[in-house]
Amino acid sequence: MKNNILPLPFNSARVPAEKRIGPHNFLILSIIIGSLLGDGSMERYGNGSRFAFYQSKAHGEYLLWLHKTISSLGYAKPELPKLSSRVGLKKGEFRYYYRFRTFTFSSFNWIHEAFYVDKKKVVPKMIENYLTPLVLAI
After folding, report:
1. Shortest CA distance to 49 belongs to which of 40, 58, 39?
2. pTM of the entire structure?
3. Region of 13 on the Ramachandran plot (φ > 0 left; ψ -120 to 50 alpha; else beta)
4. Going from the N-terminus, what domains does the chain have, and what CATH number goes with each?
5. What is the pLDDT of residues 54-100, one digit of tens each?
6. pLDDT digits over 88-103, tens only?
7. If you ran DSSP here, which 8-state letter would residue 57 be given?
8. ω before 23 within 30° of 0 (cis)?
């Protein structure tokens, strides 16, 4: 138990995705759906789905806030994302970014199916059920 938060039965990297199931609280769904409406992405991995959060160094504080919130809910490893770099489009240019992923959950597959049609990200029909101030802010 850390910071008076009980560990969740699925918040370990060693738990298979099919054993990671909801119910998920509205806060994590709001963060994920709000991110998908923006530049967040989702990946199918094994029997489940996971979210990838990726931001440039300029937006690092925002990404670190996302990570702190998501990891405190038990959906990602607690280790802070590291600053990485890659070659930019211009010769000699480097881009710096932060990135982290959630754990893989089979119970996130419905979100992947709603947001990705024929491998393209779309705005799903069910979105009206999730539009909240937090979703729009994210």
Report:
1. 40
2. 0.76
3. alpha
4. 23-137 (3.10.28.10)
5. 888 888 899 899 999 999 988 999 999 988 887 766 777 788 888 89
6. 667 777 888 888 999 9
7. G
8. yes
